[in-house]
Design goal:
This protein is an alpha/beta fold. The protein has two domains: 11-172 and 259-334, 3-Layer(aba) Sandwich (Rossmann fold); 176-255, no CATH class. Helices cover 39% and strands 16% of the residues. Helix 4 (146-157) links the parallel strand 7 and strand 8. Helix 6 packs across helix 7 (195-204).
């Protein structure tokens, strides 16, 4: 039995934004991007805060608004929270930022595309113009996993644009969460003969395995943090292909984008935020909780106001955490 509520339903409006910034991108990803925008029941969006949902790896904002069995999709969750009085009325945008390499970290890359700029310069202005919502001091960004990473990095780098952010189980402490995947990536390259051959195989496979997708994720991270436009699909690994020894100068390019590194350069900007929420499952199988704890403690040392929580769960099926984070963000944006 699928849980549903009787609260009045908001409206989900699907808009399309033509991204000039994605034109000619190396991965040949589409430039026309769909964004589902939720407006609460009885509101057209005018004057309301705007929250932007960033999807995790292999996801799209459109999955947030899709039908979901045995639970709620994001619009239904918003209907319930707003209907119960737990969440003030907000507009929530769910953009499709999927890429050929299976996901997005929402930063600028010469391979993946200038997604940091796309969000800030194209998507949000289009949404705010259409719905009359958001604006300075009334914008928030949130996400889980890769989306949580994106929300955290945008908070660190663009606290002049976003006023609030929530990072659920976001990628951080790259040494723990990424480096252990390099041997498996090398095995996949050896099995298929090259990175290009592996990606071609995944794209043509009727049912790529979970291991295949995990390896593709490693290549997506490489194309994000250390893009190499002269290589096949813009991917080069920060290890030697025969012995899996770390190539220090390439790995340094990855680590420069670790939130634990970025916080040292950008923490002063976080003081501009009205709200910063960070959480992680205490038994996260990707070991993200250790990075989250380190970031939390560093933020506390730096005097950055934030809310940090851990919960007894893993990495998957944790959308219920939005019941905590979204009211926290929205209340701050309307204050």
């Amino acid at each position: 039995m699928t849980r549903r509520t009787t609260h009045p339903a908001g409206i989900v409006t699907r808009i399309t934004v033509q991204s000039a910034l994605l034109k000619g991108n190396l991965l040949d990803d589409p430039t026309a991007r769909v964004i589902d925008v939720y407006s609460p029941h009885g509101h057209d969006g005018t004057g309301l805060p705007l929250l932007v949902a960033l999807a995790g790896y292999t996801g799209s904002g459109l999955s947030h608004s899709a039908w979901k069995g045995f639970g709620e999709n994001l619009p239904e969750r918003l209907d319930r929270l707003i209907g119960n009085g737990d969440l003030p009325p907000v507009v929530v945008a769910m953009p499709d930022c999927f890429t050929r390499l299976g996901g997005n970290q929402y930063i600028n890359s010469t391979v993946m595309g200038p997604w940091e700029d796309i969000l800030i310069a194209e998507f949000v202005p289009a949404i705010e113009t259409r719905f009359g919502c958001g604006g300075a001091g009334k914008r928030g960004v949130f996400g889980k996993s890769s989306g949580g990473y994106g929300a955290m990095v945008h908070a660190l780098r663009h606290a002049d644009f976003w006023a609030a952010a929530a990072c659920h189980s976001g990628d951080m402490d790259f040494e723990l969460c990424y480096a252990r995947d390099f041997p498996a990536a090398l095995r996949a390259v050896a099995q298929h003969g090259s990175i290009k051959a592996f990606i071609t195989y995944v794209e043509s496979a009727g049912k790529p395995s979970g291991d295949d997708i995990h390896t593709l994720m490693t290549f997506a991270m490489a194309a994000t943090y250390d893009p190499a436009p002269d290589q096949s699909f813009g991917v080069r690994l920060p290890v030697t292909l025969d012995t899996c020894e770390r190539i220090s100068e390439l790995w340094a390019n990855w680590q420069a984008w670790d939130p634990l590194t970025l916080v040292e350069r950008h923490h002063d900007r976080l003081h501009r935020l009205k709200a910063l929420f960070i959480d992680c499952g205490s038994i996260d199988p990707y070991d993200l909780v250790y990075g989250a704890r380190r970031l939390h403690r560093r933020l506390a040392d730096l005097g950055v106001d934030h809310r940090y929580e851990e919960f007894p769960d893993t990495h998957s099926g944790i959308d219920y955490r939005m019941d905590t984070s979204l009211p926290y963000l929205a209340d701050a944006l309307i204050s």
